[in-house]
Design a protein that fits this description.
Blueprint (H helix, E strand, L loop, with lengths): L4 E4 L3 H12 L4 E4 L4 H5 L6 E2 L1 H9 L4 H6 L1 E3 L1 E5 L9 E5 H4 L5 E3 L2 H14 L3 E3 L3 E6 L7 E6 L2 E6 L2 E4 L17 E16 L9 E3 L6 E7 L2 E9 L9 H11 L2 H6 L5 E15 L2 E2 L2 E3 L5 E2 L7 H22 L3 H28 L7 H16 L1 H12 L4
Parallel strand pairs: 1-2, 1-12, 2-8, 5-14, 12-19
Antiparallel strand pairs: 3-7, 4-7, 5-6, 9-10, 10-11, 13-16, 13-17, 14-15, 15-16, 17-20, 18-19
Helix pairs in contact: 1-6, 1-9, 9-10, 11-12
P-hydroxybenzoic acid binds next to loops.
Length: 395
Amino acid sequence: MKADVCIIGGGPSGLLLSQLLQLQGIDTIVLEKYSREHVLGRIRAGVLEHGFAELMREAKCGERMDREGENHKGFYIAHDNALDSGGMDHVDLFKYSGGSTVLVYGQTELTRDLYEARDRLGGKVVHNAEDVTPRDLDTDKPYVSYRDGDKVIRVDCQYVIGADGFHGVSRRSIPKDVLREYERVYPFGWLGVLSRTKPVSPELIYCKHERGFALCSLRSQVLSRYYIQVPLEDTTEDWSDDAFWAELKRRVPQAIADGLITGSSIEKSIAPLRSFVAEPMRYGRLFLAGDAAHIVPPTGARGLNSAASDIYYLYHALIDRYKKADDTGLDAYSARALARVWKAQRFSWWMTTLLHRFPNNIPYDDKLQQTELAYLLSSEAAMRSLAENYVGLPF
Ligand code: FAD
Ligand code: PHB
């Protein structure tokens, strides 16, 4: 098989890039390890920044997102010292970002829209591709092989995009002496529950509590998403639905706990929290994008949004290559992408540090954490910085 660009990974990054490129007449093939149902069964991101939404529109995939997604102008931070304001303070994103909002639209729905758009254009997406292996990346004739049952299939291409997430094969095919990895593993995870219940609040509530962090989020007016911080050793078997709701209620302000509508979980999973960046994001003809190159803890809602800027830079760089034989964008890709990636890392680390309970904190650390939050909530400058990062820095 042949394609201009072979994309490894059929998650949001890979699908979005393939759709954008095909609309420009650049031929792509996407190789995905799992079935479509499996990919669509993952419940992950809920908050999108406008840069991402804009790319979805450019990819002609934005119609349902614009119809069903909810624009949010702010969120709440609940904490012990907000007794005067019902246990929580409001972050006015719209005001402090100078008029921006975020879009609440689930990654599952967005991925479904991308698959449907790929189908409409007759895009090549291979599912259940086993043993995907990028090869000859340091030559100008790279290829990718994969197995379909007993058959080994070869895809000849000009460029390989590694959009295969944190556990994918692409990053691992960069020689160890070329790749530098930066990592922080947090001593806790997020236990997430999706339930077909009315959300407790029209806007998200991030809760800092001495028992640990909690988040009240949503997918729609009838679908809620809640998270609680749990120790790394916990498994979903340790948490019945009843135990989850009881713990969530302990960590949110009383009025929120009183209004919480509980129900059986339709999905329950634990995501360990990790910050990770691999540099460079290019090796020869291989370009890494999204979670394949960088991971953030979900606290700042930056993961998918960081993938979006990678896709934006790659998309424009590949157009310049194919339409103008200009390699400037491809050559600058790694440095440009990483500059924004590190800002998302900083913000996600900061928000995680601000709101979680760290088991190894000394009392001094806890005091600083309280002071950081008090400063944020009392300073317009600090609020502006939070808002500017949360709605998304420019690409
Ligand atoms: P992935 O979604 O991981 O897709 C990679 C694809 O590659 C997968 O389909 C995988 O099956 C496939 N693959 C893997 N290995 C191979 C292989 N060897 N061969 C072929 N294919 C392979 N981000 C936000 O911006 N906002 C949020 O609100 C937010 N909330 C989150 C909440 C949680 C609980 C979690 C866990 C994440 C959240 N994120 C959020 C982050 C976001 O989900 C990820 O950043 C996003 O999924 C990255 O997309 P991707 O396409 O780069 O990688
Ligand atoms: C979600 O709804 O899944 C979600 C929202 C905000 C975050 C993380 C996850 O910061």
